[in-house]
Amino acid sequence: xxILVDESTTFIVQGITGREAVNLTRECLxxxxxAKVVGGxxxxxxxxxxxxxxxxxxVQQAVQDHGAPIDGSVVTVPPAFTKDAVFExxxxxxxxxxxxTERIPRRDVAEMVxxxxxxxxxxxxxxxxxxxxxxxxxxxxxxxxxxxAAKAYSPGPIGVIxxxxxxxTEMSSTLTAxxxxxxxxxxxxxxxxxxxxxxxxxxxxxxxxxxxxxxxYTEPGGRMEAELARWVTENDSRLPIxxxxxxxxxxxxxxxxxxxxxxxxxGKEDTATEKxxxxxxxxxxxxxxxxxxxxxMKSKLxxxxxxxx
Amino acid sequence: xxxDGTFIGVEVDDAVAGDAALAAKLREVCPVDIYSDADGRVDxxxxxxxxxxxxxxxxxxxxxxxxxxxxxxxxxxxxx
Amino acid sequence: MRFFEYEAREIVxxxxxxxxxxxxxxxxxxxxxxxxRIGGPTVIxxxxxxxxxxxxxxxxxxxxxxxxxxxxxxxxQLEINGHQPRGVLVDPKAxxxxxxxxxxxxxxxxxxxxxxxxxxxxxxxxxxxxEQPDKVxxxxxxxxxxxxxxxxxxxxxxxxxxxxxLNKLVPIVTRLARLFVDNxxxxxxxxxxxxLKDGSFVALDAHMDMENEARGRHKKLLKDLGVGDEETxxxxxxxxxxxxxxxxxxxxxxxxxxxxxxxDGDLGLVIGAGGGSLTLFDAVRxxxxxxANYCEIGGNPSVEKAKGLAKLVxxxxxVDKIAVMMSIVSNTRVDIVARGVIAACLELGxxxxxxxxxxxxxxxxxxxxxxxxxxxxxxxADRSVSMHEAARRAVEKIQGGVTA
Lengths: 309, 80, 404
Prior knowledge:
The complex is a heterotrimer. By secondary structure, chain A is of the alpha/beta class.
């Protein structure tokens, strides 16, 4: 199986007529078993089509046209309009929202996340590339055009969670080359506040029979890794985890901003060194290089007696 | 008419270069502004040639064989 | 974006929180007239965006206007941690009975703002939290519901404060919470929050940090405070090289060449994107390389942008070679970046095969890209060569070692 999405998942693309959104729609339609993109929304563009997908003025129209609840939405509207678009999706019953947009102020993100919690919806992102279930479905730009995504991702036992969209593909490709396919890979976004953190996705992977191990990509900044370490310890997780930490050099330059918006060392607890120690205490191995990840994972899986597909 | 950048060259058959409609169409379809229409004639903007993204839109917009995109880095392989 | 104290105080004042009758100036004689107007002992405080100004001599007490002028003249000349002061703040020396603390920050784990309150102020709140944890109250509040007085009461009362102090503090704490939300702050702190001899409360110092992404919706406030769009207020001033990097980014609208940061090495880096750049920069250092710069190129840049960045890096004094590396790309195109970096070498009169230590960008349009690199004799690598291995090869090359 997979987490979050499967071949039956229906979704819309909000902001579908934008240049990047047009490409993203094409990619999702082409990949795996072909995503069920049931509509797109761009205010004022009712009646148009993007790669055969009907365009509506509102999410409400899209839901009415579909005649049943829609599972998800990929939001790719400019930062100033994102909060309203996400509220619109949530208030129209959509339960899974992937926010691609970058540079959204934290307050807006926090408001969206809180409304989602109230309505039982889940947000992935912002500033992320979405979700991919190898050979089945992708929701978002993750992995790029279908043929490129097919090169990097393959089905298998590893769940991938990454703060960097590009690195999700790099790590998955390394796993694929070593014969370790992925159950689901999720690009969670690099901002200071995001809809779904490592610890919040872990219960889903924990409950997914296909998943036997987890690989994460992490960076300095924030408390997300400490939270993951705590979750793993408190819940006695069955899943071995291997992490890769980028941006170690930033420990020497507090207050400077590199990489993603959330990647800024503000206190002693969010340095790379501190995080690596925290993860190690929880039994999470931090690989020195990405190329080491498959071997470390294989030996962890062997220790636990997991059968690698 | 042919013009070359460092990586990309474009050749437009002289027989169609004077076609005002084609000139306007090429200018419109090219996403990186390689074509301009000077007084209703097709013109090639040399400075933009290397921005060519090999999208073929100019080939689709013109009569077969009249516009050629050449990959100068690949023994002048013709995009067709 | 961090605010100077004089700006932060203005923001506090606009939110309806009492402040002292201070004045800001860049001129020593004007400091004297402010002190005259105040009419009593004053404190002269350097306006710099760095900590430790007390220790550095950036805060001085004056009994007379003449003394205030002298101190102001000294402080205006005093560089602190490499920062030249923006001006001085002349503040009445308040008769303080007790110092409190009130601040709001984001909690990324709970995804809510948290109000922090303490009856022990004037020192770092972290220190208070460590030494007297029962004196620090915390209360998370909703992003959707407006902050209520009851929430202020709860956090204040949780630290043992009651009586008229409690009632007087409630509106201040409530206004601080709303100020934080309304102005898209990432930090809003009043420390110390002074209780004066007459029992009233007044903000004696304030720290405010506004989220950069939200600056666009606070244009009026920023204009009123005199903060220009060009003022980024990073941890250090941008170098000429870094400004040139911004110009490269602005020159072509396609793609991003961001976060160009200068370092002191010989290996120039054309790397991307966010996570990939962090990984590759670490990798170069791990193998003993000395990067000349950091950057993040991505988002499907034009040839022009890739070329501009590569030229900038290649022209940096001390740069011997460049390494062009990325994680697997899906949106950015390998062939476009290859054209850009090769054109940069050619335009500067360099041999690309010599100047480009390695090109490791696998992904979209790699077949075309590799053909280009082949033609110019540039060493390239596909996804079977890890990012770390590529970095190692680049370092080896620049150090004159034998390549693998």
